[in-house]
Amino acid sequence: MALIILAAFCGWLFLYYGSDAVFHRIAPFHVGALVFGSHWFAYAVLCTLLLASVVLALIDWIRRRQQATIDRIRHSELLAMQKRFPHCHVARLRSGEFFLTDKSTGREYVGAR
Question: Is the pTM of this model over 0.85?
């Protein structure tokens, strides 16, 4: 988040004051100008940091959406099993199967055979 704020601030400086003003107001980027004699290195570092932060934020957003979808599906399956067997407690095992316990007896529900 800090990188995005820094990039937004640099973009504002760039648009408001011009390209040289951005790097004269931010001390760490003077290294690029001192080492290479121009600001291209500082531009490259800034763009790389901005791009990396955007890509990481996008990956995180995608993973959260996938996990939310998986959780929603699992919850709806659990609710469907509870509606199908209202006289049982329903628990999902790690293997993905459902474990049904009869509410009246407290034993495993086997079903009609």
Answer: no
